[in-house]
Specification:
Layout (H helix, E strand, L loop, with lengths): L10 E6 L12 H13 L2 E10 L7 H18 L7 E8 L6 H4 L12 E4 L13 H10 L3 E5 L4 H4 L5 H8 L3 E5 H4 L5 H12 L5 E3 L11 H11 L16
Parallel strand pairs: 1-2, 2-3, 4-5, 5-6, 6-7
Family: Belongs to the metallo-dependent hydrolases superfamily. CpsB/CapC family.
EC number: 3.1.3.48
Protein name: protein-tyrosine-phosphatase
Length: 246
């Protein structure tokens, strides 16, 4: 596998699902290509293609090989996309205690070229990995790496007004990554309100697309939204500054 070179300007999307037919992302190569086109049109220069490792898609040698083949195919498809972002194969790890992936060296899961590990955060239904999130954050920091917890704003699906969750993550060294769709209201008003609270209180380090289908990988709308809300400081949430290795 290789990584695709890109220009020096643009956004860094650290969380997007683009591999065809491997999890809950696009199911066809055509949809994958349309997502690459969306990402390129939106100004993304580096795109981490993060595949799930979770209750539904547990880690195994077979899954590793399937993801590797799918990523190689995505690189081939990207050759035909003008201004295609640099593509990096990565994972979104759901930290289920006592599993092989939880016990593995966290460095195995870090985003290529960074010192961060993307940790799957809360969702709209209780998940098996929920009790392991904070424990895994501590495990990653103990390994000298930085955990990035995805979509902490989704906690509002189940626990409206719960501020302790995000505060505990930050207190234990986690970076917080909010989804673009949450900020734009696609996950409902409660989640949008929580996403904006986290932004307003300075708890958010990154905004990413968490794209799963065409139409979700273009970051222009969320940048415009953030700029109206925060001004020029919003660029740091999208330009990859927080991912630079410490």
């Amino acid at each position: 596998m290789t990584e695709r070179a890109a220009g020096s300007n643009g956004w860094v999307d650290c969380h997007a699902h683009l591999l065809a037919g491997v999890d809950d992302g696009p199911q066809t190569e055509d949809a994958s290509v349309r997502m690459l086109e969306d990402s390129a049109a939106g100004g993304t220069r580096t795109l981490f293609v993060t595949s799930h490792v979770d209750e539904r898609f547990p880690w195994s040698a077979q899954r590793r090989d399937a993801l590797s083949r799918a990523f190689d195919r995505l690189l081939e498809l990207g050759d035909k996309v003008p201004e295609c972002p640099q593509l990096r194969m990565a994972y979104e790890l759901a930290p289920r205690p006592e599993t092989e992936e939880f016990r593995a060296d966290p460095a195995h899961w870090r985003l290529p070229g960074t010192d961060v590990v993307l940790v799957d955060g809360p969702d709209d239904i209780p998940m098996e990995h929920d009790p392991g999130i904070l424990e895994y954050v501590k495990r990653v920091t103990a390994a000298g790496l930085r955990p990035v917890v995805a979509h902490p704003e989704r906690r509002a699906f189940l626990f409206p007004g719960d501020r302790d969750f995000a505060d505990a993550l930050k207190a234990n060294g986690a970076l917080l990554q909010v989804d673009s769709g949450a900020l734009l209201g696609f996950d409902g008003p409660a989640v949008a309100a929580e996403a904006h609270r986290l932004i307003d209180e300075g708890l958010v380090d990154l905004v990413a697309s968490d794209a799963h289908e065409p139409g979700e990988a273009d970051l222009r709308s969320v940048y415009d939204h953030l700029y109206r809300h925060l001004g020029p400081g919003s660029e740091a949430l999208l330009n990859g500054t927080a991912l630079e290795e410490r």
